[in-house]
Amino acid sequence: MTTATTANQRSAQTGHVQRNTVLFRPGVRPVRISGFSTTFDVRTILITAALVVAALAVAWWNMISGSAGITATDTLGALLGGADEGTSRVVLEWRAPRVVFTLLGGAALAVAGAVFQSQTRNPLGSPDIIGFSTGAYTGALLVASFGFTGLLATPLAAVAGGLATGVLVYLLAWKGGVSGLRIIIVGIGVSIFLGSFNTYLMTVLDLEIAMSVATWGAGSVNDITWAHVLPLLAILLLTFPVMLSQARNMHLMEMGDDAAAGLGIRLERVRLVQFTCGILLVAVVTAAAGPIAFVALVAPQLALRLTGASSVQLLPAAAMGALLLTTSDAIARAEFLPASLPVGVITLILGGGYLVWLLVSLGRSRKAST
């Protein structure tokens, strides 16, 4: 055994290999301020900034496009408080909540996807694959079946359904701890069961309620108001700082449970915090717009490929999620005017194609490795 190999093994026990790899990767710069030290990746910052600019550009396009004939000047005037009452109502009460929700909702779904993909160490570890979105839908259907369809009933039931599904998956996957593969397998099984149960609930609901719930279940932002945006903003402000503080733990846990535990990470406590934050983000979006498929699956992986990072990162994933959902909404509106498709239909088409490509790529890489 060489001296270099021995040194690397000693460094692995203290986490120095990970730090040195990051510090000396091209484009990564160390920062030290008053005893505080961190690193920043120039490429990641530039990619994230570009994604944010692109998302805002598409959002502005969504603000000025539509069948009402409102120009960019009219829109800007409404935002600045200088437009007539009709224009202000269209821009501020109809379009602005929808645009803001797609930006924030896409970011929320992407962050949740990054959390679960990091925890499971698998690109398929997405909340819509492992059942949390389906569970939120189940909660909404259950309250609808009892006749509760108010503004607060559906969101609260969706959040409760998502959390309950998360607890169920976690408990069923527990075996002296949890592993990423068990979470995915158990989550897929729970998702299939809940999907069948949701279909049954749809058959016993009153026709009018069933049609309303079915539209919501397709993932629609057509009826979004500020009353839907504010809870999403509150959950983001609550959970995102927590997730940013957990970013280092996320990356260390991707090295494996044994290595992370050796570095002082309290595995189950950290998992519980991250799982709770991820489920809350998914549930609050699902509560307002219904289950929007594949944004959580696709956004972290696309951001990962663009930045060239070794593991999923929260900020690029959030920016990519905002761009994906905002662009999907633009397609849903622009291609089918004056009608508007549920945005979930567009994300389902785009995400389904990505999922097929991902499965084929994984199959080829495993075949090549053997």
From TrEMBL:
The lineage of its organism: Bacteria, Bacillati, Actinomycetota, Actinomycetes, Micrococcales. One of its GO terms (biological process) is siderophore-iron import into cell. It holds the Pfam family FecCD. Keywords: Cell membrane, Membrane, Transmembrane, Transmembrane helix, Transport. Signal peptide: none annotated. It comes from the Bacteria. The chain crosses the membrane at residues 42-61, 99-117, 129-148, 154-174, 181-205, 225-244, 272-296, 337-360. One of its GO terms (cellular component) is plasma membrane. It is found in: Cell membrane. GO terms for molecular function: transmembrane transporter activity. The keyword Ribosomal protein does not apply. Belongs to the binding-protein-dependent transport system permease family. FecCD subfamily. It comes from Nesterenkonia salmonea. It is a multi-pass membrane protein. This is Iron-enterobactin ABC transporter permease.
